[in-house]
Amino acid sequence: MKALQLHKKIFFRLRITASLLAGTVLITPLSTFAQANELELSQQQAEELDQKRRISERLQEIEKENASLKIKEPSKAEASNTAAANPSYYVPIRSYGLQRETEPPRYVRQLNKTWLKDIEGLENVDWVDLGLESRIRYEYRDNDFRRNRDALDTPILLRNRFYAAVKSKFDPVRATIEIQDSRRFGSVFAPDNKDINKLDFIQGYGELYFKDALGKDDLGNDRPISVKVGRMAFELTDRRLVARNEWRNTTNSFQGLRATLGQQKSDWQADVFALQPMVRLIETMDQADHAQWFYGAVGDWRKWSKIITLQPYYYLLRQNGSKVQYASDGSLAATSARKDREIHTAGLRGYGVVSNTGLDYDVNYVKQWGEDGGLDHDAYGYNLEAGYTVEHAWKPRVSGSIGFASGDKNPNDKKSQRFERLFGFARPWSNNDYIQMENIHASKVRFELNPTSKLKIDFGYNWYELASATDRWNGGANLLDTTGKSGKNIGEEFDIRVRYPISKYIGLNVGYAYFMAGDFTKKTSQLIQPGRKDNSSFLYVETSLYAF
Question: What is the mean pLDDT of residues 47-72?
């Protein structure tokens, strides 16, 4: 209501501006005349001129206020000035779907930069962050291969989030909470924790923040130290191994300790953590998985970011089989899941933009080793992407990528080569959400463009194969042929997506994906449901509403 009243006030100001502008035409010559003959003017005339001067000044103030409310694309000169005023080593990636969610999330705003600043006493409150988001998505899924049977499913997914944080005013002490409620309506399938996770905290932590504890870099950016304790949700590197999972209706979160050295703008940054994953329970409050500990150290070296940004990383997932209670879907764990595990993951990622050429690249290699329930774990994966952005107003970008994650070669050899995807997300691999980072060899070509400053369109074509013909297709309802006779060909996928911010408070996201099954998918799915269709269609319409 406050925002509506503000818009009405602005509209009223615009109406009176039209009538007042005529007066401004007379103000300038009258002011000049008054200066030349000020001794001859009567007191009444002087007052009239002073009144007109004040009107002119107020008109200028109104114009500035109106301009501040417009959504405006900065000019190249303005962007250059902004960059000079805010120097940073950080270079955003151009790779498709791999941009990390910000901290705090994108729907969050500083209080004095929202419409709440018009409330008396709040105009200077720059130490509180607030966010309120409601996202609703209609899905039309015909023959969804994530399911073990052919069906037409038309669910409505609803996700509501609230975020609040207290920062700088009480430094070094800070605090953050984020609450989420995720629900699904109208589905023909049983409830699951990918779509449903009723009202719960996904973040709730205390923080010690020391602004310049590690000095400053060569550009003058602070290198702070942040230590967080509690429940938290965040993303690292390219999101394939640690992600909030923004596309999914529910969110990955962890509980424990996380320390961050440096910040995104500085020449280097490091994250170290010791966390327990949260088990998402549909009806009751989420619980920490006391059977698992997840440790990690991740670096960002940006000193050479004009050429390359380097991200070395190491993770350790340790599981005590005797404490396993829940499976990842929130159900009670099967006996076979109650096993000890110690999976080490180490990798190096490098990405960058080749100056003044329009070319960009993103390269990642990752190796895993350890023990998995008595099996010797030995797996690996890699991702390569190269793109070219044409110098054009629409910013067209064409790219190609290859992704690989090993699969188990022989279920009877006491070895495990199936890549452990940890807590990553599937969206960059498949817009149908069919592919996860295990036992996969994927190739993709994609085209992206921005016809206007707001409208974004992208479409692509994808080819999918199993890395090992004798291991499962996890994203496809665990389809499996241990003999390998069904081959490796999972299928091909075409997708298109359109995004448009209707206003600063409303965002629209519409997409379609069509999957064409390959030999492996056709043969294995027919064994479960004879006569099942070979292809699938997925259409979605998503709207996000923001309070700030």
Answer: 47
